[in-house]
């Protein structure tokens, strides 16, 4: 019971602080673009790396499954659907939970244990406005962009694999991709990824700002941020599947 | 004026402040002195609302800090400069930006911000470090920039948390002179937390000696030097034996 009450109290405090911080645009606005570059643009390589291999494996696995009974052009269907609906957003989210969640938690944790967060407060600057809000907004805005690129690269690498390694032409792959295409496939994945971004950045900020002690405390906060971020992705993934599909 | 009223604070089982009461006179430098872990820094953090008391309260200019709403607390913090033990400079910002951050928060125009930054760095005798990052400065320089960041705000109160800890004797003397100059030129009320006896005797108008979370003795430098209190005497003699003045 006590644990539940603590979580509720902390969440309530974060909502109040968050609302107040959002209104303090003069503090967070100058930080937004640098954070979008740091959390979003600089995450593109790792997201694309994951996407390339996801596309390759999906194409090979689907061709392995679709023997005789199912036409091979369904490789295009499976690669496209799986990448857009599930693997693009979720695997990108997982990769960025490591990169972004750890980065945010370590940075804010170090600031906490070296009293830089206290210093902000003594300068009458809210850490939520200066540190949390720009990071959460940046991740929420940039995760869909990075995920969209990952989706495109995942489908392209699946197509490239199908055309070069399987007995499939580009026309057949595209026919399969278009067979069950629905515009919802795209925005569903992007809405999910925005929520993943918000969750990962929030977990990172929360873990970092609650870090205690020295280097060990920062290490614990970083691990917690990554673990909680990954768990949040799975929970949100199920939530959006229930709500939107 | 700052007043502590029966302030108590514990962390887990450890009682750090125990019915701590003290009045800090306006315009003076009051040194909080005592052994490590006696609650000096914890008392300081209550003044700016970084910590909430378990019981008792701190009053600044007639306002109870723990009762202030968010806006009033921010307003109060704008009148207080805080110098942290390890400077707490923002790693990712240059010295100039470290100093500018609080000034911009006060809504000052760019030109005034630039002037204040230059003046404050000149006051701490570091006029050429504005474009450097904290990692490029020595420990002593970082502490001086920490003081510059606090005085740039032209605060009514300056709180120093262990300003000379870890510094060599020459740099310590320079820091003492800096604290005296800051008080003289800004007329700010200062509270200095230290267990450096030499520094305390140099900068203090009054010294409050803490033991086990409460005040053991308060007096002028002369009174503390001549103390008959066995514990305070023991502290002074021990520190004098370590090279501090008797």
* Biggest interface pair, counts: A-B, 15 and 24 residues
List the helices and strands of chain A in order: HHHHHHHHH
Task: Give me the Rg of chain B, rounded.
Answer: 18 Å
Which class of secondary structure composition applies to the elements of chain A? mainly alpha
Helix content of chain B: 25-40%
Oligomer: heterodimer
User: What is the CATH topology of the largest domain in chain B?
Assistant: Rossmann fold
Number of strands of chain B: 10
What's the domain count of chain B? Answer: 2
What are the low-pLDDT stretches of chain B, counting only 5+ consecutive residues below 50? none
The fraction of residues in strands of chain A falls at under 5%
- What is the overall shape of chain A? elongated
What does this structure look like?
The complex is a heterodimer of chains A (245) and B (246). With 245 residues, chain A is mostly helical. Chain A has one domain. Chain A is 87% helix and 0% strand. In chain A, helix 3 packs parallel to helix 6. Chain A is elongated, with a radius of gyration of 21 Å. The model of chain A has no long low-confidence stretch (mean pLDDT 92). With 246 residues, chain B is of the alpha/beta class. Chain B has 2 domains: 2-79 and 156-241, 3-Layer(aba) Sandwich (Rossmann fold), CATH 3.40.50; 93-154, no CATH class. Chain B has 9 helices and 10 strands. Chain B has helices spanning 40-47, 70-77, 95-105, 110-123, 139-151, 169-186, 197-203, 221-225, 230-241; strands spanning 2-11, 14-24, 29-33, 55-60, 63-64, 80-83, 157-161, 189-194, 206-211, 214-220. In chain B, the strands form 2 sheets. Chain B has a 6-stranded mixed sheet, with helices on both faces. A 4-stranded antiparallel sheet of chain B has the order 2-1-4-5, with helices on one face. Chain B is globular. At the A-B interface, helix 5 of A face helix 2, strand 6 and helix 3 of B.
